[in-house]
Specification:
Distance between the termini of chain A: 37 Å
Shape of chain A: globular
Largest sheet of chain A: 7 strands, mixed
Radius of gyration of chain A: 13 Å
Strand content of chain A: over 45%
Helix content of chain B: under 10%
Strand content of chain B: over 45%
Structural class of chain A: mainly beta
Largest sheet of chain B: 6 strands, mixed
Shape of chain B: globular
Oligomer: heterodimer
Largest interface: A-B, 32 and 27 residues
Order of helices and strands of chain A: EEEEEEEEEEE
């Protein structure tokens, strides 16, 4: 089975722009979660989607948004980019989206904001 | 609030020696505990998890972890370290009310010297 895929792998944007990142979960997985990884803050949860509904949200400003499609693929969007948004954005999928489910991570999208 | 602590930023061991990477947690209710490993410029790879049952959990690549409820710890161990084990290790926790949200520790860099 193919793993979690994320596109693009690398992005360079300037302040004020917006960006959309894409995540394709493992086939059959219904839950998708997004995380931001930075050297200073570590790994922080952004949001989780299950059956096209946002089920859980982390402590990020409204500039960060996401959605999930009927095929479980997910996108996240960051508007009005700031320098501090530079990070590795990781997507993870799980089969049933339960608390005991294992999350499997993609390789990430490295976003650099200039 | 849930939290995970990894008290050591870096652990150094010689190849062939046993290794331990420490993790303590704080969560309400029953904890669901996970270990992940991250190689440079890669996403997180799942190693093992504790949900319930036997306190000693065996995982991928010869790793195991011991759940200790009284000490709220979930230390990662391996009897004989390999140079290829050198990477960044993350401990994470969920509880029953958090379906898609993993709370991560800050990570521990494991350096295995030949």
């Amino acid at each position: 089975k193919a793993g979690v895929t994320q596109t693009p792998r690398y992005l360079i944007k300037t302040r004020g722009q917006q960006v959309t990142l894409s995540c394709s979960p493992i086939s059959g997985h219904r839950s998708v979660s997004w995380y931001q990884q930075t050297p200073g803050q570590g790994l922080q949860f952004l949001f989780e989607y299950f059956s096209e509904t946002q089920r859980n949200k982390g402590n990020f400003p409204g500039r960060f948004s996401g959605r999930q499609f009927s095929n479980s693929r997910s996108e996240m969007n960051v508007s009005t980019l700031e320098l501090g948004d530079s990070a590795l954005y990781l997507c993870a999928s799980s089969l049933r989206g339960t608390s005991t489910d294992t999350q499997y991570f993609g390789p990430g999208t490295r976003l650099t904001v200039l | 609030a849930q939290s995970v602590a990894q008290p050591e930023d870096q652990v150094n061991v010689a190849e062939g020696n046993p290794l331990t990477v420490k993790c303590t947690y704080s969560v309400s209710g029953n904890p669901y505990l996970f270990w992940y490993v991250q190689y440079p410029n890669r996403g997180l790879q799942f190693l093992l998890k504790y949900i319930t049952g036997d306190n000693l959990v065996k995982g991928s690549y010869g790793f195991e972890a011991e759940f200790n409820k009284s000490q709220t710890s979930f230390h990662l161990k391996k009897p004989s370290a390999l140079v290829s084990d050198s990477a960044l290790y993350f401990c994470a926790v969920k509880n029953a009310s958090n379906t898609g949200k993993l709370i991560f520790g800050q990570g521990t860099t494991l350096q295995v010297k030949p």
